[in-house]
Every structure is written in structure tokens, then in C-alpha cells.
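[Q] Does anyone have a clean C-alpha cell version of this?
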Amino acid sequence: MTVQLADGITFEEFDPLTKRDVDSLQEMFTDYLLEEFQRINELAFGSLAAGYLITTFIHVDGQDAGFMALDAGRYAVEIIYVKPEYRGRGLATLALRQVASACPQKLALKTPLSPGGEALADQLDMARADNFPHEEAKNEEALRTIRDGIKATCTHGKRVGNPRKPCKRCYQKTLRRYAALGLGKYVAAERAVAGR
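[A] Here you go.
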């Protein structure tokens, strides 16, 4: 399904059965995780694709410019990401206004938010939705697993820097694998349901 946001700007639902969609979404999610790692030095929480999420691409003139993952049950945006080369055009604002106009209650952004996300939520008068305790526990477990895995295999931190903290290079490598694994599990499940 495609929704027109403005001239040349559309929303299109992510298709987990299409290799192009899967590759594009994985690339953008990896970029999102790496950018957030640069900002906060840790894994950014939020799911990309799951049975409870509606994930859509933001297209500009047919090109993938970003994506949004919406928790439809809570009317909350899990993640919204716009590629750096498309930023400053109001794409996130257009996308959020479109979704908010179709929601039967006030749309929220899931926390924690980046400084840009906070500013956008304030500008659009959007609510904030904290993670449920089980989501928080899942996020913390993922973070702990990633840290423990890096500490067990990283030799860089032992030679330079703080040996108790995973090195940046190994953390980034692990985030790339995390992005592929998370999306890969969802895609495999969807393909199994579709019989492919």
C-alpha cells in the first residue's frame, strides 16, 4: 500500500518477502544503530520489524529516504529514521503528521528519544510512550548479551584503552550483525508463513 504524503514523497509498506526491501531496510537500520552508537556509545533500543509493528519506507521520488516502525497497538512510533542526505526537508514531520491524522488517539513517540526526536515531539505536540517493563527487560538483556559477547572476543580493548569497556570497532561490528540477525529472524518467520 502506498500513501502520498506530498509531491514526490510517499509512504510504502515494507515487504519482508522482497529482497530489495529487506536489503534496504537492513542497511538503514544498521546506519541508525551506528549513528545512535556515535551519539550515546551504546545500543539504541527499538525494534525494526515484528509482528506487532507496521514498518514503512519513506520514499522521495521513488528512492528510500527513511523508514518508520509503528506500534499500532499502542499508537506509538517505535523508530523513525531519515537518511542524512534527506534530512532537513521535513520528511519525519510529514510522516508523523500523516500517521497522527489516522490515529484514533494521540500518537506517541517511544522513549528514549534523541535530542532531535524530543524537539520533533515538542514541535508536533506528541506524547511520549515509555517502554513496558517486559520491553525494558528485553532491551537490557540484548544490551548485556552484546556487551558480554564483545568482551569475550575483543582483543583491542585489552591492548589499548579501557579493558573493561568494549572497543568501538568491535561494538560497531556487533551492531551490524545485530541489525542483520534481528531483521533476518522476522523475515524468515514471514517467509515460512507465506510458504517461501
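[Q] Thanks! Anything notable?
[A] The mean pLDDT is 86.
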